[in-house]
């Protein structure tokens, strides 16, 4: 790769010392994008003229009061507004006038700290679902194997950092959308506490769960970006590194059938490394896990339809199949299920906080970020087909950090997740820095061959797998297709047979999950 620095932190120090100029870094990033973006699908839109002008302006201000990110090139997910061009949220029917000519407040804070914006990165449509081959947007591909998915929904951010196209980016997370691409691409990503960063100027998916978060090479890099995004230094962590940190592990969850053997092995190795650094590792059951997964899914899809339903009805065929089928499921969920999910959410969040603060409690909960390495695009996952280890922290509002922890025999990244109470980002980042001071997994870089021609995406209707509920439970009464069709017709949606079958499968999975007792 052309980027002359392995981490954002080192680039920032060199920019501030004058050892390197912003134009040099920007030109390297643009060359890399020219070479690799046709393969990896990192960008929706690039801003070469604007970012070079911004870099030259930064280089002309080498004295006086400069921001902490002075001249640093960054990327921004395409559901966040930027002054340079319209945001698409990777949807052909998104309003091009939305926040036109404005920066989202979070983007403005990065610029205020001195950063320059390279472009807008690819994502899942409206931050949910898989790419639809019928669309003309770039297909995001994993730099470690372009036949594989990057994870969603901050797809371009994960791929771009892993391939060295840029050193940091701003993403969003509603069910794991910062952490999953970080996990599958081998980078670091921080889901922040709900409400810590301003969500204005971000196309919403689930407003009660959407958060913004930094993505970068290392935990220290994420900390630098977080300080710029909040506009203030982080409070000092209560412990230095991980010495004396109580790390809880839900062994029953980690040892379950949903986690692959190579992922489990890497996770236990990571625990040993943390213990050697001074952490106290103790068992911490997570009975809230299953019900909170259901809460996340029910809340996300119900709110997604509330936000996007009018546009969905007006432009049904214009939306990708992944997005429209998931969002439409939110239209057929009974209101009492959403209300029950919110009651469960409040009760379980309070219970979890009390358990964390009890004499047998812990400071941090550790799990793998994802239970397996990246799947190929040809492996079509059904709803609930993979154990989602990220989504549990969205309805609680807790922060969570994804860190590279190893690789499978094929070299595909595996990831460690650390989660904590609200507003404990300092603790998580300090633990991440300590872990990365003793490991080098975060410094690995993929080296994709730009000559590679990956297989085209398959039609999802030709490969759709049988659905499985996201949380094991006694089956609820299956929703009848006629009832779903009538419910959709009532909101102006007339799906075809394949759409109707897919919506019914998602609704069935949600009903199964939503009828599970809170425990």
Plain-language structure description:
This protein is α/β, with parallel strands linked by helices and 519 residues long. 40% of the residues lie in helices and 12% in strands. It contains 17 helices and eleven strands. The chain has helices at residues 8-17, 22-40, 48-60, 105-112, 155-162, 179-185, 219-230, 251-254, 261-276, 289-314, 321-332, 335-357, 393-396, 425-438, 460-463, 481-490, 497-514; strands at 43-46, 73-77, 116-121, 168-173, 188-191, 211-216, 246-249, 280-283, 364-368, 400-407, 413-420. The protein has an eleven-stranded mixed β-sheet, with helices on both faces. Strand 2 (73-77), helix 4 and strand 3 form a beta-alpha-beta unit. Helix 4 (105-112) crosses helix 7 (219-230) and helix 11 (321-332) packs across helix 17 (497-514). The termini are far apart. Residues 465-475 have low confidence and may be disordered.
Rg computed from alpha carbons, rounded to a whole number of angstroms: 22 Å
Strand content: 5-15%
**What structural class should be given to the helix and strand makeup?**
alpha/beta
Tally of helical runs: 17
Low-pLDDT sequence parts: 465-475
* Largest sheet features: 11 strands, mixed
**So what's the overall shape?**
globular
Task: Please report the distance between the alpha carbons of the first and last residues.
Answer: 50 Å
Question: Helical amount among residues, as a percent range?
Answer: 40-55%
Order of helices and strands: HHEHEHEHEHEEHEHHEHHHEHEEHHHH
Mean of residue pLDDT values: 93
The total beta strand count reads: 11
Order of strands, widest sheet: 1-3-2-4-6-5-10-11-9-7-8
């Amino acid at each position: 790769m052309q980027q002359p620095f392995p981490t954002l932190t080192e680039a920032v120090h060199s920019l501030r010392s004058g050892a390197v100029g912003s134009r040099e870094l920007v030109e390297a990033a643009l060359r890399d994008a020219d070479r690799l973006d046709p393969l990896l699908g990192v960008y929706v839109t690039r801003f070469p003229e604007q970012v070079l002008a911004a870099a030259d302006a930064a280089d002309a201000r080498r004295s006086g009061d400069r921001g902490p990110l002075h001249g640093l090139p960054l990327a921004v997910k395409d559901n966040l507004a930027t002054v340079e061009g319209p945001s698409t949220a990777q949807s052909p029917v998104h309003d091009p006038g939305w926040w036109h000519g404005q920066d989202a407040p979070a983007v403005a804070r990065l610029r205020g700290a001195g950063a320059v914006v390279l472009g807008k990165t690819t994502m899942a449509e409206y931050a949910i679902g898989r790419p639809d081959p019928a669309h003309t947007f770039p297909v995001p591909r994993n730099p470690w194997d372009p036949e594989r998915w990057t994870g969603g929904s901050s797809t371009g951010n994960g791929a771009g950092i892993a391939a060295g196209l840029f050193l940091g980016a701003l993403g969003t997370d509603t069910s794991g959308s910062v952490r999953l691409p970080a996990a599958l691409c081998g980078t670091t990503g921080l889901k922040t506490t709900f409400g810590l960063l301003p969500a204005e100027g971000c196309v919403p998916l689930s407003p009660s769960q959407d958060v913004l978060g930094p993505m970068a090479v290392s935990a220290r890099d994420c900390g630098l970006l977080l300080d710029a995004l909040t506009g203030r230094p982080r409070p000092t962590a209560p412990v230095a590194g991980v010495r004396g940190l109580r790390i809880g592990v839900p062994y029953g969850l980690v040892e379950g059938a949903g986690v692959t053997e190579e992922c489990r092995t890497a996770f236990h190795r990571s625990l040993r490394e943390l213990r050697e650094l001074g952490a106290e590792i103790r068992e911490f059951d997570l009975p809230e896990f299953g019900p909170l997964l259901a809460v996340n899914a029910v809340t996300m899809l119900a709110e997604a339809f509330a936000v996007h339903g009018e546009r969905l009805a007006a432009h049904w065929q214009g939306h990708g199949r992944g997005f429209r089928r998931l969002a439409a499921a939110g239209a057929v969920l009974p209101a009492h299920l959403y209300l029950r999910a919110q009651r469960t959410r409040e009760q379980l969040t309070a219970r979890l906080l009390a358990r964390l603060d009890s004499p047998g409690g812990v400071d941090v909960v550790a799990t793998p970020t994802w239970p397996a390495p990246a799947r190929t695009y040809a492996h079509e996952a059904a709803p609930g087909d993979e154990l989602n280890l990220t989504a549990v922290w969205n309805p609680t509002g807790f922060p969570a950090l994804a860190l590279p922890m190893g690789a499978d025999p094929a070299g595909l990244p595996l990831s460690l997740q650390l989660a904590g109470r609200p507003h404990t980002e300092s603790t998580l980042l300090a633990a991440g820095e300590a872990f990365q001071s003793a490991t080098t997994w975060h410094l690995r870089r993929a080296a994709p061959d730009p000559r590679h021609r990956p297989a085209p995406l398959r039609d999802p209707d030709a490969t759709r797998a049988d659905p499985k509920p996201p949380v094991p439970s006694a089956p609820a009464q299956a929703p009848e297709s006629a009832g779903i069709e009538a419910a959709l017709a009532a909101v102006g949606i007339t799906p075809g047979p394949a759409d109707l079958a897919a919506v019914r499968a998602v609704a069935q999975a949600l009903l199964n999950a939503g009828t599970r007792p809170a425990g």
